[in-house]
Amino acid sequence: MKYVRILGLAALASAALMAMTGAASATSLTSPSGTIYTSTIKGENEGAITLTSVFGGFGAVSCKKSSFEGKVENHGAGVTTIWTITVLIFSECTGGTPRSPVEKPGSMEFHWFGLQVTTKNLILIIDKTAFGTCTFTAPSTGSSLGTLTMSSETGGKATIDIKGTLPSACGSATLEGSYVITTPSTLYADS
Fold first, then answer.
1. Euclidean distance between CA atoms 188 and 191, whole angstroms
2. CA neighbor of 58 nearest in space, from 112, 7, 1, 131
3. Under 8 Å CB-to-CB from 88, ≥6 apart: which residues?
């Protein structure tokens, strides 16, 4: 009886380890599905992109228009999918004026588990807030930014739903909104 329990626990531990290994496995972006995509990725906002002070300090900045462009730099077996953002633009904003294009747009990483998106090395400077100029940063270790919804889920273009916190000397703020991927026309993730 004791050996049956030990074997059962060993099987359970093995299954958990395999599940964790699968969750940590790499992701490759594909377009069309099954064909590795390593070219340019572009996106435009759907609705407003907002940066709202967590504790009400500087208030909120809301932009009617925003777009980004980047290129897949890293993907495949045993690595995290990384895409370097080359251009990040905000316009038609109220509550502050983001410096646009953003001087240091950083990079994004896609993680297969939950299709989580993190951002690294982003520096977003916003002038004319209630506190003057505020600089928001995503650390080099990464900051959770949101989730990627594949074309298979939307029935069309993929989307990135943004909701993440960025620190600043003006106080932390929540960046929130949604981007639709315009290039490529469909986007999938394969583990």
1. 10
2. 131
3. 66, 67, 68, 100, 101, 102, 105, 122
Where does residue 57 rank: exposed (0-12), middle (13-18), buried (19+ CB within 10 A)?
Answer: middle
154, containing H or E segment: helix 151-154
| 145 Cβ contact list (under 8 Å, min separation 6) | 108, 117, 118, 119, 138, 160, 162, 163, 164, 175
Amino acid at site 151: S
| Residues of the chain scoring pLDDT < 50 | 1-25
pTM: 0.81
What pLDDT, in 10s, does the model give residues 114-160? 678 999 999 999 999 888 899 999 988 888 999 999 999 999 999 99
42 touches 183 (CB < 8 A): yes
Helix (H, G, I), strand (E, B) or coil at 26: coil
Sign, CA torsion 152/156/157/161:
negative
Residue 12: phi, psi to the nearest 5?
-65, -45
Rounded CA separation 86/39 (Å):
13
